[in-house]
Structures are given as structure tokens and as C-alpha cells.
Amino acid sequence: MDASVLKDHDKIREWIEARGGHPARMKSGTVGVDFGRPMSPLENISWDEFFKVIDESRETFLHHDSKSSRH
Questions:
Q1: Radius of gyration over every alpha carbon of the chain, rounded to an integer in angstroms
Q2: Contact, 64 vs 19, CB < 8 A?
Q3: What is the pLDDT of residues 21-62, one digit of tens each?
Q4: Cα-Cα end-to-end distance for the chain
Q5: Helix axes 47-57, 9-18, angle to 10 degrees
Q6: CA 66 from centroid of its chain's CA atoms
Q7: Do strands 31-34 and 43-44 pair parallel, antiparallel, or not at all (unpaired)?
Q8: What is the pTM of this model?
């Protein structure tokens, strides 16, 4: 399966929300996406906070093109 990189905030948010996800932070401080897994150690954060961390770290959002993919 091919992977793609997204940098546009609106497209990243659209991709995540289309799959039932929302921005979150791990206890270590790393940001990620929570897809509602039971017993998840993630804390919900705002989209602004999510993108601030991504922008400051110059990270990109890598995803698989499949609509059912959550990676």
C-alpha cells in the first residue's frame, strides 16, 4: 500500500476526521491521533495545539491512501 505525506492543515484534519480520529497527546508529550481505542493512554488536545507541535517540530503527516486505513 502506498503512503502519502500531507502538510496542509485542512487536508490533515479532513483525513483524520473522516476516519473518526481526533488529535491527542501521549503521556510522553508526543502528539498523535486517537481513533478511540479502548484503554488508550492518550489525552485529547485541540487542533490548534496539535498543529502547533507539528509545525514547530517540522514533522509531516504520513498516511496510507485507503479510506479504511487509520495509519
A1: 12
A2: no
A3: 999 998 888 888 888 877 667 889 999 999 998 888 776 665
A4: 11
A5: 130
A6: 15
A7: unpaired
A8: 0.71
